Amino acid sequence: MKTIDVRTGVPYQVLIGRGLLAETGRLAKKVLRGRRTVIVGDSNVMPLYGEALRTSLEAAGYDVADAVTFRAGEASKNPKVLVDVLNRLAAARLNRSDSVMALGGGVTGDMAGLAAALYQRGIDFVQIPTSLLAMVDSSVGGKTAVNLARGKNLMGAFHQPRLVVCDPECLKTLPKREMSNGWAEIIKYAMLRSDPLLALLKDPKADAVDGPVIEKIVAECVGIKRDIVSDDEFEKGSRALLNLGHTVGHAVERLSRFRVPHGRAVGIGTAVITRAAVRSGTCEPQALPELYALLKRFGLTDRCNYEPAALLEAARSDKKASDTGITAVLPEAFGRCRLEKISFAKLGELIELGLKR
Ligand SMILES: NC(=O)c1ccc[n+]([C@@H]2O[C@H](COP(=O)([O-])OP(=O)(O)OC[C@H]3O[C@@H](n4cnc5c(N)ncnc54)[C@H](O)[C@@H]3O)[C@@H](O)[C@H]2O)c1
Ligand SMILES: [Zn+2]
Fold it and tell me: 354 with 273: CB under 8 angstroms?
């Protein structure tokens, strides 16, 4: 088992290891005060892992007062389902020392986490991420949210989990397309800090869900995210590094009306900005072949067919853009990036440069 300490306002640990799902009750007992809990999960994950989690919790003496299943998919990450979850917590008579178990991907973690942040002004919650993306990204850092009609994640809170239990065994049932979404974020981390992640990603067994390498990869990524979020818990500065590839990525998602999955779009976004940086002379050229090889290896692409003007327009309306420009994450080499406030005119130039054949 690997343990990663996250030193945010309320510190917590991320535990990574095969078979840990069955240990969740015992592990949670060390950090949670109350003995009553409610499991929240979606309609794909709950039938697969809900019982195992319940059994583990009950064996450790927990009273699992309810298990809430909502329909799988991003569309469920909305205020209505959030309020349904809150009502179930109230019906289960959770009090302020009780807890919520978020069992699933990023949608579950974000929504159950927000429910925990809101219920009685905040109760404990445990993240049990089951998608690769949730393991390396959304379960760590304490951002919780649901979507509003006007945009993604517009209603949310910072609320750190008390514990994250990551069992790579769960990846055996994750569909391939969902794996790619996780790989895109992992490649993003490698571009931010390559050592030793890049070497792990080059291992021929890197993507074997039953092998030992993937566990190391998850742990490395959690370590990188931990370092970045501990420096900037409430996203006032350096945490923006995690947005590498996301300005163009979000624009691609939006232009495709969300038919291009997030990970594929982030892969494209990372390639576009890296190409732009290399072509404008601010990034070592060797970064590109390294990046292309990884994207290819993990089923992603470095190209899209959108016009620069359309991409710029879509990027301008990004939630993270200000009136005058954006904070760009610019690669300087494979494994090293910097932040720079740039105007939309400059962003337009970069997009044009990055898209050129
Ligand atoms: N809070 C953050 O910091 C943060 C960071 C990145 C992304 N996010 C959010 O995370 C969400 C995306 O996360 P996601 O990709 O995990 O989406 P998701 O939760 O919808 O999971 C993807 C799909 O995989 C299924 N699934 C999950 N684990 C499975 C397993 N082990 N076996 C079989 N099926 C499984 C789910 O049911 C779903 O159909 C988005 O809403 C995004 O906004 C949040
Ligand atoms: Zn992302």
Answer: yes
Cα 94 to middle of ligand 2, angstroms: 33
Q: How far apart are CA 357 and CA 339, in angstroms?
A: 26
pLDDT at position 357 is 81
Closest CA to ligand 1's atom 33: 174
Tell me the ligand closest to 42's alpha carbon. Answer: 1
- Total-model pTM: 0.97
What's the CA gap between 309 and 351, in Å, rounded?
Answer: 9
Taking the C-alpha atoms of residue 155 and residue 141, their distance in angstroms, rounded to an integer, is 17
How do strand 12-16 and strand 163-166 relate by DSSP bridges?
Answer: parallel
Q: What single-letter DSSP state applies at residue 11?
A: -
The rounded radius of gyration (Å) of the Cα atoms in the chain is 20
Return the pLDDT at 40.
Answer: 99
Closest C-alpha to ligand 1, atom 3: 138
The span from the CA of 70 to the CA of 73, in Å, is 9
Atom of ligand 1 nearest to the CA of 140: 3
Please tell me the number of the ligand nearest to residue 258's CA.
1
Any residues with Cβ below 6 Å from ligand 1, and which?
42, 44-45, 48, 72-74, 77, 104-108, 110, 130-131, 133-134, 137-138, 141, 143, 152-153, 170, 173-174, 178, 181
Could you tell me which of 328, 227, 326 has the C-alpha nearest to residue 274?
328
Please tell me the distance between residue 181's alpha carbon and the centre of ligand 1 in angstroms. Answer: 9
The pLDDT tens digits for 124-183 are 999 999 999 999 999 999 999 999 998 899 999 999 999 999 999 999 999 999 999 999
User: Which of 43, 70, 138, 260 for mutating ligand 1's site (highest number of atoms within 8 Å of CB)?
Assistant: 138
For 130-161, give the DSSP string. -SHHIIIIITSS-EEEEEETTEEEEEEEE---
Quote the CA–CA distance of 253 and 306 in Å, as a whole number.
11
Element (H or E) spanning 14, and its range? strand 12-16
Edge-first strand order for the sheet with 163-166 is 2-6, 12-16, 163-166, 124-129, 99-104, 36-42, 63-70
Separation between Cα atoms, residue 142 and residue 154, nearest integer Å: 15
With a cut of 70, which residues of the chain have pLDDT below it? none
